[in-house]
Known about the structure:
The chain is an alpha/beta fold. It folds into two domains: 11-195 and 243-323, Up-down Bundle (ABC transporter transmembrane region fold), CATH 1.20.1560.10; 354-564, Rossmann fold. The protein is built from 21 helices and nine strands. The strands form two sheets. The chain has a five-stranded parallel beta sheet, with helices on both faces. A hairpin with a 2-residue loop joins β4 and β5 (416-417). The longest helix is centred in the middle third of the chain and has 53 residues, at 227-279.
Amino acid sequence: MADSWPTNMSDWDFLRQVFRGSRVWTGSAYLLLALTWIAGIALLALSGWFITASALAGAGFLLGLELFTPSAGIRAAAILRTLSRYGERVIGHEAVLRVLARLRARSFASISRLPVSAQRQLRSGDLQHRLTTDIDTLDAIPLRITGPIVAATLAALAATGLTLWLAPWPATALLLTTAGLTLSASLLAARVGRARGRALVEQRSRQRVALLDFFGGLADLIAYRRVDAERSRLEALEYEQATAALFQERVSLVADQAVQGMVALTTLAMLWLALHWHAHGVIDAPVAVLLTLMTLGLNEALSTLPGAFWRTGESLQAATRLRALGVDPSTTPRPRTRVSHSKVAEPPAPVSGFRVSNLAIGFAGNRPLLSGLNFLLEPGQPLVLHGGSGLGKSTLLETLAGERVPLSGSIHLTGRSITELPEPLLYRTVGYLPQETRLLDDSVARNLRLGQPELSDVMLWNALEKVDLAHALRSEGSGLDYPVGETGRRLSGGQARRMALAWLLLRATPVVLLDEPFSGLDHNTEQRILARIRPWLEARCAAIVTHAPERLPREWPRLDLTGNAR
Length: 566
């Protein structure tokens, strides 16, 4: 259940929250970038001034030329440009990478808090894309948009300030006009290209999902002779994505060339003005060259803006996709009420009953899978839920566990609606074994201690004994250190199921919901395990979904869901 954030939060609000905690670092990077461009402009302008002044002095048209100050200024500008560029790259990228690393951890936490039903609606490849590519896409905001625009503004102001001091006002107006037109073109490019950028992000996601599906299901594709068809589909997705990306690059290139052309025209206009003023004795020749080359030097600061702004839609769509997960965008943790570890470890209060009243479950916008459900779970009377395949039995357990919102009706736990329970209390009270077995690629011990690292080895062995796994693990030799493999592939299906059941036994929640807990087991093993865990089940409120109710104790109450199906 992801943290709730304002639904009216815009993508820009989200991005501002993401980078808020790094303002000092990113601001320093912006200033260093501005200093880099200013130093580059100064280097070009001073070099032109010095060469012109030296030529005139050598021809006898300029007397008393002082060589050391301008040459020192040129060296200083060259060194400053190199150092500030290096500092901007180090500080800027360090700040952004730290922010995105924290955001990636927050995104993973948000995904892990999603209800099981919501997680199942997201493809594995799509989740990977959001955690990697989407988050990486956000680095364009400080590095290619806000940073360059701040630095370009400062560089343009520095140039216009010097121009205002050295030349009449038309020169300043010319530079301001060029900078204003470039900024306007950049904003227009961002507005026009936003939709294309958003579409490109979605195309990349579809391509990644399809690629992972292809390799994940390659064995089945080969068996059913569908490899060529799927390969053609991948090629079509790749062509679609590559075409969109190529279009983005072409627009960026054209925008870059357009600004360079505008700066070139501005440089020619400045040259004409400078020559005109020199002819009328308003400025000298070295200053005329300085003004012209300084204008040309603005090209580096201005030319990248429209192309970068054109692609803002990519970052905005990445923000949209992260917001859909309920990701906390702030870079500093929100204050939370401190809870001592002793309190967290305490078991919840005893549960007297788990009541379901007139419950309808299913998927929003569709007809209910099951409706009119009324029953009470009480300690000592595990309820056996059964019926044909596809009725919605697993969906019912997801709803009872709080992983899915009921379409109508209510679920009360000791007189309190489960929708009102704080998430930590709900998870300490209701234990749920879903139909799909999920194990970590780690040892048996680490899997069983998930969420309860304080459990002793003795407790782990007791749980494994109850599910009839202890003997097999002891015989294997590694015991609790046995690695289960990715998704439990080093265990059989029945063994993996029993290990998940052992983990649930160790949680000892007052309410237990089991979805086909004995699937993959032979009759004798099932009955042996059932006899061992029966006291544990009867000590709490329990519901068990099964396709074979006759294999469970006859005295346990039954509920055939067939009559409640749509």
